[in-house]
Amino acid sequence: MMTEEYLHALLLNMTIEEKIGQLTQYNANVFLDSSADITGPRMQLGLTDEDLSRVGSVLNFSSVAEMKKMQDMHMENDPHRIPVVFMMDVIHGYRTIYPIPLALGCSFDAELAETCSRMAGKEAAASGVQVTFAPMVDYVRDPRWGRVMETCGEEPRLTGALAAAQIRGFQGSDLTYAENVAACVKHFAGYGGAEAGRDYNAVECSERALREFYLPAYKACIDAGAQMLMPSFNSLNGIPSVANPWLMKQVLKEEWDFDGVVISDYNAVGELLVHGVAADEKEAAKLAFDNGCDIEMCSSAYIHHLKELLEEGFFTQEQLDQAVMRVLRFKNRLGLFEDPYHGADQEKADCLYLCEKHREIAKRAAAESAVLLKNDGILPLQENLARVAVIGPFAREHGILGSWSCNGRDEETVTVADGMAALLKTGQVIVAEGCSNHWDDTDTSGFEEAIAAAKSSDAVILCLGEPQDYSGEGNCRTDIRLPGMQMELARRVIAANPKTVAVLFNGRPLDLSELDAVAPAILEMWFPGTEGGNAAAELIFGRANPCGKLAMTFPRSVGQCPIYYNHPNTGRPHWTRAAEHCGYTSDYIDCATLPLYSFGHGLSYANFVYVGMTLSDHQLSAEGSIRVSVRVRNESPVGGKETVQLYMRDPVASVVRPVQQLIGFRKVAFAPWEEKEIEFTLTEPMLRFWNFDMKHVSEPGEIQLMIGCADHFVLTDEIIMK
Ligand code: NOJ
Known about the structure:
By secondary structure, the chain is α/β, with parallel strands linked by helices. It contains 23 helices and 26 strands. Among the domains are: 366-540, Glycoside hydrolase family 3 C-terminal domain (Rossmann fold); 608-721, Immunoglobulin-like, CATH 2.60.40.10. Helix 22 (513-518) links the parallel strand 15 and strand 16 (521-524). It is globular and about 75 Å long. The structure holds 1-deoxynojirimycin.
């Protein structure tokens, strides 16, 4: 790595234009598409060749050769030989695709999340990527929002733990190492609170809710060493994040002391005009830069106006130099001054793509992220069945990677039909699509074939869900039921053969009330990635034992949304599963209050019995700790994993507290009939909350402890906080 003196010397010799270039990022096509100067992206962005030659970072490119070409072009023209840094969205894999982050959330397994990110980073780095725009840690409560698939769900502690693990996986311990990529945590902050679940929508959220639920996961990423941070598109309490002084200056810089690089989201500086908080591009540049946005992504406010703003005294030379130094240090940490390609090597990349090891990890991750929502005893199936029908629009659908699948290719995924055929010993797999999964498709001409297939088979695997482009950025829904004729197909197929397992592919919690009423078994696969079909087959036949637990609540209907397990208590709580209306309690007259499947729910083929909980003490002092031991026994002949979840409730506090909060979880493997003691250590900081004065404190009094899942506690006890 270069010395700090070297970087300062560089800075000293740079012109203002060169400095501003370091604070700008464009898409690769802007650099490569020179034929389109007159009408193309350069013209739209108002860029000259000179501007472009100074730009310090590039978003998205298609190959190592392309990346090297851009780097070479740049280095030849840059008198200071400051390399460009290349960034991309490597969210859940580069070419080998792992389950979507929401699925990984359900694994409750930080080690697994770290491994997936490490493998994804390895493929990406060999392909020329130096920075990934991940992890995304936006806190979510509303499944209508398409981007819930990119998050790890509705639990701040869980999301923080998995995101920190992803950062360790991507960044490793030394960023100069060619297999590591820098991580950019996003989108700061509150983006997941988009009103009505509509993407980019305004977010109105109290400071208490922000600090309690939304902000901790970003902080966990910074503590884990995230090198970069991206403010969110949305306005937060009236001010777009990239121009929000409370968020960017007070919280991020002053309270959290973040000294990494801040990069805007795509055109987010330009969009300050559209939001209506900047009259023109110059004001947009001023607002974003003044609030600590170092790099502007894909708009030109900085290139066009920062110099002028500096000359007019809107900010100081020192402010500019500090931002540039952050970028130079960052490039130095990546070792780019020594190796501007950061070890990119197409041959190496080709060997890594879809290699056996990565496929194996992808399969394990898909299996561990799947959640068995319901099982009336028909799963697992025997491998010696004579005939199995794989029915539904996802039976031989390759599009199960999910949104943000980077360079993943649908045609390289394993379908359910293929996965089943590989495991069924001598029997026959027959396939019938039945209908499509599009919302406006009313075609039922495939029903007959599907019903005949169901009737003539020993068991049916009914593969349903929503197309992968129904979730992800900009893909929000107001109707979160199974699209098209799928529910009708399900009813007919289940009537034809009651031994039917519904296997689901989707990027958000769906309203499954109708399916739950008729299907004897439901296996939620999410978008499982490259190895999805193999993982599904292993789970169906019991070669793998389901162990995922929901990281996000499944509502009974969209009308319950937003719905989440850790909601505040009310003065008139309604807490039964009963559908009946009780009158003047916080409920609905036409729907039960509790969700269909709550946070933390997930079945297994093993039978885990919670034997008892013991506490080393019942009084907790500020400096002390209490050991909470939970005895769990696997009362079954099959091995499996159980995620033991510890919740708390603070029944009397100076502000209204959530009805329950997860404060610890342990995912533990059990052999058949094995009994284990699982331990948690309880300390005072775990009980803290933001009080009336916005101080993070715990208060003396009773704290209830619960073990189980959010709507079903099997053990309870209480302690006194002194
Ligand atoms: C917009 C998305 O909001 C963000 O998540 C992503 O990193 C950037 N585009 C760059 O692709």
